[in-house]
Amino acid sequence: MTDLNHLEHDLLNQVEAAGDEAALETVRVSALGKKGSVSELLKTLGAMTPEERKERGPLINGLRDKVQTAIVAKKETLAEAALDARLSAERVDVTLPVQEGPETRGRIHPISQVIEELTAIFADMGFSVAEGPDVETDYLNFTALNFPVGHPAREMHDTFFLAPDEKGERKVLRTHTSPVQIRTMTSQKPPIRVIIPGRTYRHDSDQTHTPMFHQVEGLVIDKQANIAHLKWILEEFCKTFFEVDQVKMRFRPSFFPFTEPSAEVDIQCSRKGGEIRFGEGEDWLEILGCGMVHPNVLRNCGLDPDEYQGFAWGMGIDRIAMLKYGMPDLRPFFEADVRWLNHYGFRPLDIPSLVGGLTS
């Protein structure tokens, strides 16, 4: 009896002293495992006489039950303590501002955003997007667009020429996206309604010019396209893009080799307070060039100018981005300054739409 009391006292003390679940499991195995001290006592019951078993059995089974109960209680206590420690260590102060994740910290470049805006606007008018390579042949970049031999635009001071190939022909970095117009007219049958956003290259660099910049051109070819249609498209575009109810535009005669007649388009604006506001004021600002597609260009694409006609326009994406979002200098567009992008960039989920708003 004294030995059982001593063993009980010793085992209960071990259970109480266990500092974690691993230590408690060690105590359980030493007492109740196959070769544990209590288990060994239970094995002796079979060799006892009925009188001894009647006396010793309840004592040994009682010891087993007490140890099991103590282990279960200790395990619950350790689990609660572990949970409290975890809750304390992982506690979150819900009054702190939520940290932005990478999907919200990132910014869309203004050029990419404006291209999406242009696409949304012209898609609503029934236009599709056409694309072409940045490196073009002299024929597609100049000759097919009615640039005569000796035209200043062909000279080295305007154009980036590549080294001559084995045939002695020099390709160029396209000076405009107009070669895609030629590619489109030679690969598709009218009616054609496309816009062509993309990179272009010219040897020029200052506050409002960079050697690489972005243009968007539009092209419409069918049997009834006329300059009144062109005027309506440009007016609707300007109202939607600059988000004004009304715009006043003027078309000034100009010259482009690939259009006839040709015009430069000004939009009415106000420059008061150092800000440019459209749809009001008495000033004018040039924003694009346009005209009816030259008959020679149609012929170069295999189209009969007596049957088909069309119009085209082009504008600088960088320039209209500067005008809309108040950017004073073009050069930071291409300097990869994260601070500038954080200031002028757009959130990734701010997808332009005519329903939700271009800049909502």
Report on this model:
The termini are far apart. The longest helix has 40 residues, at 50-89. It contains twelve helices and ten strands. A hairpin with a 6-residue loop joins strand 7 (259-270) and strand 8. It folds into two domains: 2-89; 107-343, BirA Bifunctional Protein, domain 2. Helix 3 packs antiparallel against helix 4 (50-89) and helix 6 (110-124) crosses helix 11 (317-325). 28% of the residues are buried. Strands 1, 4, 5, 6, 7, 8, 9 and 10 form an eight-stranded mixed sheet that branches. Strands 2-3 form a two-stranded antiparallel ribbon. The chain has 360 residues and is α+β, with helices and mostly antiparallel strands.
